[in-house]
Amino acid sequence: MKKGSFTLLLFTCLLSRHNLFAQQQADLETAFRQINAEVLSHSEAYVRLGESIQQIGHRLTGSPNGAKAEQYVFDLLKAYGFEEVAFQPFAINGWARESLDLRVGSPGNLQPVKAVALASTPVSAQVSGELVDMGNGLESDYAANPERAQGKIVLAALHLLPNSPQGTKNLHRSAKAALAIKYGAKGIILFNSVAGGTLLTGTASITGDLLTIPALCVGLEEGNRLKARIAEGRQEATIEMKNKAGKMQARNVIARITGSELPNEKIVVGGHLDSWDLSPGAVDNGLGAFSVLDMARTFMALGIKPKRTIEFVLFMGEEQGLLGSKAYVQQAMSNGTLDQIRFMLNFDMTNDPKGFYATLEGNRALFEEIGHSAARIDTTFKGTFSATAGLYSDHQPFMLQGIPTGGADGSTLSREALNCYHADCDVFELVNEQQMKNTVRFCSMLVYGLANTNEIPVKRLSDAEVKQLMVDNNLEEALRLGGDWRWD
């Protein structure tokens, strides 16, 4: 071939490739404009969340309210036109609070203290002993004096205390409970960082198994008072609690759109439906769950036929230890379909995002392409991208099996909403309708982009690669304490 002919052929190929990319970009933005218009005009996310709170209330996994919530979203997805909607049942170690009495004071002068039990604490417990201050409740706090907590009741902060050493990494409340048990404590009292006497709950056992010691939470002011009293002299505490526990049933709810070209490549779009029982869980995770529902509605309303299969999944049991997402992954492993999952997008307390994130840097080009296209539709969306890996939400079981995960980044939540995380003040009045619409429209664009791209650049990681990802993101200690480190 002559040099001129080769040059002409190369130029023609490059021009063709440029034209194809330009056409794909144009098609993407056309679809995004349709999604944008549909959500802005017809979104039901805010209304349906409010309706569910009014009709059902809290959505505690395994409770009658939890079952009502499962049925509510199942019926809603059917009403949106999904033919493939199914329950995915799984068994759980259910837990519900009954009574708690905490008393603290100098010997012979114990006074009642307002507190709330953390989930997966014992069915019955009655303990008493000296109350000792273990600071942040981290391994380093115990290692400084390994015998100090033995036979005592531990006081520790849920947050990192002021003046903690620079670079100190905090741990989940369940990890702090595990450390208290490891060092022989009789019980653990955690206090939060929210002013005003707010009480926070949550699971004290990431595995869902009952703890061997009582674990509870008090408010910020009470925690600081107890720290001051301990510094002045010996303090004692008594904890009496009763809870309900036992085998219960819960159900994930799954709605599927089968892919038109790549039906065996699947995008999982998930958010947890369950909440704690102290409140209706408007922010955690009404925001994420009802945004996922409205993403599903949007796809059906527009008649979108994606190249890849999309499964919209409302998980239960997240708050008790990611139980629903673990059940989903376990079933996919059992029936040999795990390799079909090309990506898992998780939406947990997602609100008015400004960009996207993924666990792996290799997704940057694709996510930025999708994000920049979304930003051209509405410049309030910035189209930013970050690569990061974390724990304690429903992406975790997928990530630990090497499946690429991601979601929305740069969410906007008011300080009031953040303060009510897992608290009795997590109510519908904290939710902003326009911000929910922003979540639905921009995240629907991400789902569409992933489901229709010619190629998803990042494949499922090998076991060795998953281990390295966990190490690189400083997650080994937390996984060990939660019983999820499998590489020894």
Written description of the protein model:
There is one protein chain. The protein contains 14 helices and 14 strands. Strands 1, 2, 3, 4, 5, 6, 7, 8, 9, 10, 11, 12, 13 and 14 form a 14-stranded mixed β-sheet that branches. It is of the alpha/beta class. Helix 1 crosses helix 9, helix 1 runs antiparallel to helix 12 and helix 7 crosses helix 12.
Strand and helix map with partners:
Blueprint: H1 3-42, H2 45-55, H3 64-79, E1 84-106, E2 109-113, E3 116-117, E4 124-133, H4 139-143, E5 153-157, H5 173-182, E6 187-191, E7 215-218, H6 220-232, E8 236-257, E9 262-272, H7 282-301, E10 308-315, H8 323-334, E11 341-346, E12 355-358, H9 364-377, E13 384-387, H10 396-399, E14 405-409, H11 415-419, H12 433-452, H13 463-472, H14 476-481
Helix pairs in contact: 1-9, 1-12, 2-7, 7-12, 9-12
Q: TL;DR?
A:
By secondary structure, the chain is of the alpha/beta class. Helices cover 38% and strands 23% of the residues.
- What order do the SSEs take from the amino end to the carboxyl end, as H and E? HHHEEEEHEHEEHEEHEHEEHEHEHHHH
Number of helices: 14
Shape: globular
Rg, alpha carbons: 24 Å
Major sheet, described briefly? 14 strands, mixed
Share of residues in strands: 15-25%
Alpha-carbon distance between the two ends: 59 Å
Overall structural class, as computed from helix and strand content, comes to alpha/beta
The average pLDDT value, as a whole number, equals 94
- Report helical residue fraction: 25-40%
Low-confidence region ranges: 16-20
Please provide the count of β strands.
14
